[in-house]
Design goal:
Number of helices: 12
CATH topology of the largest domain: Spore Coat Polysaccharide Biosynthesis Protein SpsA, Chain A
Largest sheet: 9 strands, mixed
CATH superfamily of the largest domain: Spore Coat Polysaccharide Biosynthesis Protein SpsA, Chain A
Mean pLDDT: 91
Helix content: 40-55%
Keywords: Cell membrane, Glycosyltransferase, Membrane, Transferase, Transmembrane, Transmembrane helix
CATH class of the largest domain: Alpha Beta
Number of domains: 2
InterPro entries: Glyco_trans_2-like, Nucleotide-diphossugar_trans
Oligomer: single chain
Pfam families: Glycos_transf_2
Low-confidence stretches: 305-309
Radius of gyration: 21 Å
Subcellular location: Cell membrane
Organism: Marinobacter guineae
Distance between the termini: 45 Å
Number of strands: 9
CATH architecture of the largest domain: Alpha-Beta Complex
Length: 309
């Protein structure tokens, strides 16, 4: 067996069939298997997955990292491909994977690909996620996500897989440990898959970033190595200081803090998306940056118990 695709699921009945069929179509010429590890869905996810996947396992008590580890333990392939249930492979992904499969088998690399935004009318997709993707090129990076990750099985097992104690951020932790073992972490923009699950409204956007932010606060080492976490905390503290100064009627100080907060927000927006997106697009992006920084910053206050003090 050349390749094992491992997909964790939870109530994905609307996407799972499309995702699994996309895998079958993309690698029909390569010996492969599809392993679905379900977290206890109460819809038709597992029944639908069994019609296409080679193996469906139910593990209702595992974290998402634990689900992937279970799938890897059953995998027969020499290469593990980790996908999410709402990520659809493309012809471009298949072509790149096929041309580089020998390299994946020979090199000690963890390789991640792009998660493209589907065509949609949503402003969040147009002015937040799409500009982020355009700024990424194929290169060595600090980490790649598990929504589109490729790694040799022997290297994965040697590194003891994902840390099952982590609720989120298990991909970052895994890449850090792989780098310590001598692996390169590579991002390849040609390995493009389509992520159907990007949020399309403000509520789901904030919820997503709050959840992702938890990974930065699961240990002090994570906190102090995350520029996003530190910047988010600084921004939130600046905003809180502004509000407090208003209550104290120290207006000169309030204006000064408001100016600093505005500079921080503009800097973050330009750093996050340096591409030209127009005045309207920049205004939308800055508004989303404001929500993003607050969501990430509040991950700290809402998850202090996760810090290993």
């Amino acid at each position: 067996m050349d390749v094992s695709f491992i997909i964790p699921t939870l109530n994905e009945e609307h996407e799972i069939t499309h995702t699994l069929n996309a895998i079958r179509e993309s690698v029909a010429h390569i010996s492969h298997e599809i392993i679905v590890v379900d977290n206890g869905s109460d819809d038709q996810t597992t029944e639908m997955a069994k019609e296409i996947a080679d193996l469906v396992i139910v593990e209702p008590t595992k974290t998402v990292g634990g689900l992937r580890n279970v799938g890897a333990s059953y995998a027969k392939g020499r290469i593990l491909v980790f996908n999410d249930a709402d990520v659809r492979l493309t012809k471009q992904w298949a072509q790149k994977f096929s041309s580089c499969m020998v390299q994946y088998l020979e090199e000690s690399d963890v390789v991640g690909g792009a998660l493209a935004v589907p065509e949609s009318p949503y402003l969040i997709h147009k002015y937040w996620f799409k500009p982020l993707l355009r700024n990424k090129e194929s290169k060595v990076v600090n980490y790649v996500g598990t929504g589109n990750m490729i790694v040799r099985k022997d290297l994965f097992l040697e590194c003891k897989g994902f840390d099952e104690r982590l609720e989120t951020g298990e991909d970052y932790d895994f890449c850090v440990r792989m780098k310590k073992n001598g692996a390169r972490i590579l991002y390849d923009s040609d390995l493009e898959a389509i992520h159907i699950g990007y949020p399309h409204d403000l509520k789901s956007f904030v919820r997503r970033e709050f959840w992702h932010g938890k990974g930065d606060f699961q240990s002090l080492s994570n906190l102090f190595t995350s520029k996003t976490a530190l910047f988010s905390l600084l921004f939130v503290l600046t905003n809180i200081t502004f509000i407090v100064s208003l209550f104290l009627e120290n207006y000169y100080f309030s204006y000064l803090i408001l100016f600093v907060a505005g500079i921080l927000l503009l800097y973050f927006s330009l750093h996050k998306t340096p591409s030209k997106i127009g005045v309207y697009g920049r205004a939308v992006h800055m508004g989303l940056s404001f929500l993003y920084l607050w969501a990430r910053g509040l991950s700290f206050w809402g998850n202090l118990k996760l810090l290993k003090l």
